Q: What sequence folds into this?
């Protein structure tokens, strides 16, 4: 469709898909975003036939720090997203304009070997193109104008949203949509592993690509088991709220790496590579020796791993049975376990910096007073963000309450959206 046809179709036939992506209240603002993207495309590339694309950020609901030991995770896509207008330009050149970062990128598809630096968006884009070639899929030159409202540094995977958006564009324009959402995740992982030297897994990309609520079992990391959960989150009348607690000043690299390392130290005792291979009964039968071999913190973090896997299973069952109260209780239990056993709410390197701990204390105080909702540390932890599930009727009050203590604009209301990466033209 040309630009006018695309704009008309979106305005007149796109109400249903826009409501599903952004809620009824969010349609107007997001329709404006797409109009701005179309106008930006014209400014940069002229009037051409285009398609519209969207890929969401994600939230980790449970399964905190289990994926690196091939455990189980429950995650979902959110109604913040990267969007794009894009078209095949019939050349070997990929041209991308990022409105959000006021940057332009130009890549020759015949020159996509990893660079020396292994950092930055250009390398990531080359890695995605290379990932398609690794999977024997087609690539080509295209023009794209992109913008994003996925919050950076908030544990909602702005980079994975971007990666899966580019995957959706390439799959639609050059492969007739033949690649799967799982392919997107592997391509994103390939790009980060080989072009960024980032030892990432598949969690972020899976959640962004699939959309809705999904559970992932990473026991076989080369072929994780994905379960799409048929649950209408909108009917639950809860908002998912991400609260930024302020970034700590300490280098957290050692803290992050210590968690998988200590869990794997416990697995090593049983001649296994990851905790997912260890029998829980054998773990407890050998616990005194494990304390000596790996240390108490490693043992506590392993306890978290085993229990967290069961919580993910319980949450999935609760959602399938439409038992939202049990679902919330397990989120609370997950957060408490992360706090007490996993121990990722602050760094011992800077014990006076406890933004997450303070935010959780305030969040718990509010929710206990109302006797509603759930709250937990979100993402990697040690510094950064927390998550809360709050009934819609209290969510504005919760945001005002948290912002009062942590600063205006610290809290972001979100919904779980039922779609992951999509080409909107398929719906309009």
A:
């Amino acid at each position: 469709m040309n630009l006018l046809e695309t704009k008309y179709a979106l305005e007149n036939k796109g109400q249903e898909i826009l409501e599903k992506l952004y809620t009824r209240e969010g349609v107007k603002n997001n329709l404006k975003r797409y109009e701005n993207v179309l106008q930006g495309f014209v400014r940069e590339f002229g009037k051409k036939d285009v398609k519209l694309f969207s890929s969401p950020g994600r939230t980790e609901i449970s399964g905190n720090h289990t994926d690196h030991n091939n455990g189980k995770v429950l995650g979902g896509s959110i109604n913040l997203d990267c969007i794009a207008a894009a078209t095949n330009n019939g050349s070997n050149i990929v041209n991308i304009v990022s409105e959000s970062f006021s940057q332009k990128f130009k890549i020759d598809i015949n020159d996509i070997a990893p660079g020396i630096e292994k950092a930055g968006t250009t390398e990531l884009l080359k890695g995605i193109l290379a990932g398609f070639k690794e999977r024997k899929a087609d690539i080509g030159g295209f023009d794209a104008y992109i913008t994003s409202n996925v919050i950076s540094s908030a544990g909602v995977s702005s980079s994975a949203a971007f990666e899966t958006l580019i995957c959706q564009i390439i799959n639609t324009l050059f492969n007739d949509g033949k690649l799967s959402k799982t392919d997107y995740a592997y391509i994103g992982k390939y790009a980060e592993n080989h072009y960024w030297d980032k030892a990432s897994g598949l969690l972020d990309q899976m959640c962004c690509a699939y959309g809705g609520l999904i559970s992932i079992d990473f026991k076989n990391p080369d072929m994780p088991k994905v379960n799409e959960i048929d649950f209408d989150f909108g009917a639950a009348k809860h908002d998912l709220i991400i609260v930024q607690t302020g970034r700590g000043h300490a280098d957290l690299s050692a803290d992050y790496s210590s968690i998988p390392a200590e869990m794997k130290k416990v697995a090593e005792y049983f001649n296994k590579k990851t905790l997912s291979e260890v029998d829980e009964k054998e773990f407890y039968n050998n616990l005194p020796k494990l304390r000596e071999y790996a240390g108490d913190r490693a043992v506590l973090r392993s306890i978290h791993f085993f229990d967290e896997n069961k919580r993910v299973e319980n949450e999935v069952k609760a959602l399938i049975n439409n038992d939202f109260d049990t679902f919330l209780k397990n989120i609370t239990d997950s957060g408490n376990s992360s706090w007490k056993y996993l121990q990722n709410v602050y760094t011992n390197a800077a014990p006076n910096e406890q933004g997450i701990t303070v935010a959780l204390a305030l969040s718990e105080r509010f929710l206990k007073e109302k006797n509603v909702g759930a709250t937990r540390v979100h993402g990697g932890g040690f510094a950064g963000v927390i998550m809360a599930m709050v009934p819609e009727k209290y969510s504005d009050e919760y945001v005002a309450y948290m912002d009062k203590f942590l600063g205006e604009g610290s809290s972001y209301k979100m919904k779980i959206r039922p779609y992951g990466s999509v080409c909107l033209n398929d719906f309009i």
Remarks:
- The domain at 238-414 is CATH 3.30.70.890 (Alpha-Beta Plaits).
- The chain has two domains: 3-231+417-426, 238-414.
- The mean pLDDT is 93.
- The CA atoms of residues 102 and 206 lie 28 Å apart.
